[in-house]
């Protein structure tokens, strides 16, 4: 955890950093929120009194985005969150409007995130990461939503692509790719979706055929997050057309920028997430060495199923965090906006709607924090992750609609944050397995 403590020390005073370095078990008080506490005492005159700190849940604090809340986190997570929040505010927010027009973020913002230790935080220290738990990743997902900037595809890179390489890659692949990905020098993408295969991965047509010890890859992919800027792409391809089912004949390959026959199509113009580069990819007789195979041949579908819970958890947590942001943005707006001689927040219909939304969001947050805790313990199953994904993304869209409505005509203006949050939310029930498909998966578990 030495690398993690180095990252944390960047956002605390010299004195506090010295304390951190001196003891790996010490804890710092949270400076940005008040923690409830109580004393445990037997009444003996010389006894040591133990203070137990209780982190308030989001339902009990002034803002749903306050630092120092939620029992699943520690003070160390709060320090990391402070650093992440400052990064998003200083390095992303001022440039995001420009990136929306360009359809992609800058290379520089990737390098800066790497320099500050914000990429691939779960990656082992010997591979350049800080060896942190998944809750540190969750901090990054949530802080991105709290600043309402969907452009940087850090979650795809750090928490979807990099885990595949770390778990299923060879030592050579680890050493060649992961340190540069942690540093932001190489950007990762995952290429699953095709024009005729979305949530149904068994409909994949991209294929790789043996050529001696090597492979020849042909096919195309679409809607690929980070696709335009990516240097390393994990490509899902059929490698055994005679398998008893398509699932038994899928393999994963590492395709890198510059390989002959690999071409990137246009950046796709979307209704939301305008600064996030999303692209078509084409593979025309791409010659792949045997070392490009990720994991074992024909085991790709198993790997994909093993990693889907984390992907769906990311979508769900970002959905709840976005809902929290939209709620706070709308609460601030209605407390200032006047109609009929008084602020909109004094209208009972608005008050009731805010009460309903906050309750829904806090219920969702409680479930999501339970899922995060389970995943941190390695116990989150696919069924529960599917529940979280469909419920949270549906909630996000309901909140987006209600919050925009409370902004009136101004909510329809692009200059208002709620407009961007509204269009960004619409894709959440679609990718990562459409909500209709996730409900099918949940139902199978119920009736089987």
Topology at a glance:
Layout: H1 2-9, H2 14-22, E1 36-40, E2 50-54, H3 75-92, H4 96-102, H5 107-115, H6 134-146, H7 154-168, H8 171-182, E3 188-191, E4 207-211, E5 214-225, E6 232-238, E7 250-256, E8 262-267, E9 278-288, E10 293-294, H9 300-336, E11 338-339, E12 342-343, H10 348-376, H11 382-407, H12 417-425, H13 435-447
Parallel strand pairs: 3-6
Antiparallel strand pairs: 1-2, 4-5, 5-9, 6-7, 7-10, 8-9, 11-12
Helices and strands: which structural class?
alpha+beta
Strands, total number: 12
Fraction in helix: 40-55%
Low-confidence stretches: 11-41
What spatial form do the alpha-carbon principal axes imply? globular
Helix tally? 13
Instruction: Please give the radius of gyration in angstroms.
Output: 23 Å
**Spatial order of strands in the largest sheet:** 3-6-7-10
SSE sequence, one letter per element: HHEEHHHHHHEEEEEEEEHEEHHHH
- The percentage of residues in β strands lies in 15-25%
Mean pLDDT over all positions: 90
Major sheet details: 4 strands, mixed
Describe this structure in words.
With 448 residues, the protein is of the alpha+beta class. The chain contains 13 helices and twelve strands. The strands form four sheets. Strands 3-6-7-10 form a four-stranded mixed beta sheet, covered by helices on one side. Strands 4-5-9-8 form a four-stranded antiparallel beta sheet, with no helix packed on it. A hairpin with a 2-residue loop joins strand 4 and strand 5. The longest helix has 37 residues. About 7% of the residues have low confidence.
